[in-house]
Amino acid sequence: MKSNRIVLPFVILGVLIGLGTGRAVEPPPAAPSQSSQPSIVTIRIVTDASQRCNKAYDPPVVTIQAGTTVEWTNEDYETHTLVSSAGGESCNQKELPSEARVIDVGQLLPTAQYRQTFTKPGEYPYTCHLPFHHMSGKIIVVP
Predict the structure, then answer these.
(1) CA–CA separation, 102 and 112 (whole Å)
(2) CB contact at 8 A, 65 and 141
(3) φ/ψ of residue 61, rounded to 5
(4) Residue 102 burial by Cβ neighbours in a 10 Å radius (0-12, 13-18, 19+)
């Protein structure tokens, strides 16, 4: 019983000192969310893109999950467009009619960026439809 009388004041003193600092006890930080894929995927339009065919976009083919946003960044010194194409292996792809396009970006000036979110699974080939710009890329969207 005598040892409890000696220890108790030290316990009370420790509590009071802890309260006197004004610091609250913070919960441990939450674990970062484990996403299998970022919500934004970047595709670069490289320098001299119009001369690079299927290497004009870096990366040229991207597989993403539905709901992911793709951001194209024009790092070339020329203006480009992005429009849905008929696809295929050729670097001289033909753009789809405007009513059938999923991707349809007007002029993308040098250093400009464009973002588009893909929600529906499928394959989305695209090209720059400017004359003599033989460029091709593809977005593959999975559920």
Answers:
(1) 20
(2) yes
(3) -130, 130
(4) middle
Amino acid at 24: A
Sheet containing strand 80-84, strands side by side: 61-65, 136-142, 122-127, 80-84, 104-108
Using the predicted structure, report yes or no on whether residue 74 has a pLDDT greater than 50: yes
For residue range 11-47, list pLDDT tens digits in order: 554 544 454 444 444 555 555 555 555 699 999 999 9
41-56 burial, b at 16+ Cβ within 10 Å, e below that, comes to: bebbbbeebbebebbb
- In this prediction, residue 87 carries a pLDDT of 80
pLDDT value of residue 25:
47
Q: Identify the bridge partners of residue 100 per DSSP, sorted by sequence position.
A: none
Cis amide leading into 38 (omega within 30): no
Q: Higher pLDDT residue, 141 or 8? A: 141
- DSSP secondary structure, 63-130, as one string: EEETTEEEEEEE-SSS-EEEEEB--SS-SSPPBPPGGG-S-EEEEE-TT-EEEEEE-S-EEEEEE--S
Beta bridge partners of 138: 61, 125
Read off the pTM: 0.70
